Amino acid sequence: MNPLPVAPGTWRYAAPPLLLALPALVVAFPVGVGLLVLTVAVVAFFRDPERTPPASGIVAPAHGKVSVIREEGEQVRVGVFMNVTDVHVIRAPTDGYAESVERRPGAYKPAFSKDSDRNERVDVDFGTHEVSFIAGWFARRIHPYISGGESVARGERLGHIAFGSRADILLPEWVDVEDVEVEKGQRVTAGQTVVVETPTAAD
């Protein structure tokens, strides 16, 4: 658990305006206030609140608006677009063992556009499913917290994207598009909103 409810590396972005604000408050008060506001905005952007997963189900990987629901071969992809006010910490949709964590270079198109599929990304392959961190036009820093060979629990933090974009889950093959319980345009919460209910032994 983080000692502060912010993502790792927050102060890399928040410290410069804070340090500049202190002398600016003396020599140029409005500028100093502006820098303090910027510092608060950066810290708020990197906030990392605790999440409690529900009792069952595959949960949303990100906090934001569902922007993609589509079939890809034998699997279904669900993507969540994060705007500047959303939490940008990505969480594990279900328990899994990361077989690989691969960074793929690409473009920096707006994350809500179809062209964002070709953006820079990090794919975390869990074998049965995959989670992708996709950069946007402004987001140029993807920070995975795990490496290949690590196991994670549902709702656990997988990483964050500095200044935004999109997170996808390529669902297990047993999931049909009709099984998806969210809709395009729906707001979801990382680690809490159920995307697909998992079958029980009685099903």
Automatic annotation (TrEMBL):
<dbReference type="GO" id="GO:0004609">
    <property type="term" value="F:phosphatidylserine decarboxylase activity"/>
</dbReference>
<keyword id="KW-0594">Phospholipid biosynthesis</keyword>
<feature type="transmembrane region" description="Helical">
    <location>
        <begin position="20"/>
        <end position="46"/>
    </location>
</feature>
<keyword id="KW-0443">Lipid metabolism</keyword>
<dbReference type="InterPro" id="IPR033175">
    <property type="entry name" value="PSD-A"/>
</dbReference>
<keyword id="KW-0812">Transmembrane</keyword>
<keyword id="KW-1208">Phospholipid metabolism</keyword>
<keyword id="KW-0456">Lyase</keyword>
<dbReference type="Pfam" id="PF02666">
    <property type="entry name" value="PS_Dcarbxylase"/>
</dbReference>
<keyword id="KW-0472">Membrane</keyword>
<keyword id="KW-0865">Zymogen</keyword>
<keyword id="KW-0210">Decarboxylase</keyword>
<keyword id="KW-0670">Pyruvate</keyword>
<protein>
    <submittedName>
        <fullName>Phosphatidylserine decarboxylase</fullName>
    </submittedName>
</protein>
<keyword id="KW-1133">Transmembrane helix</keyword>
<dbReference type="GO" id="GO:0008654">
    <property type="term" value="P:phospholipid biosynthetic process"/>
</dbReference>
<dbReference type="InterPro" id="IPR003817">
    <property type="entry name" value="PS_Dcarbxylase"/>
</dbReference>
<keyword id="KW-1003">Cell membrane</keyword>
<keyword id="KW-0444">Lipid biosynthesis</keyword>
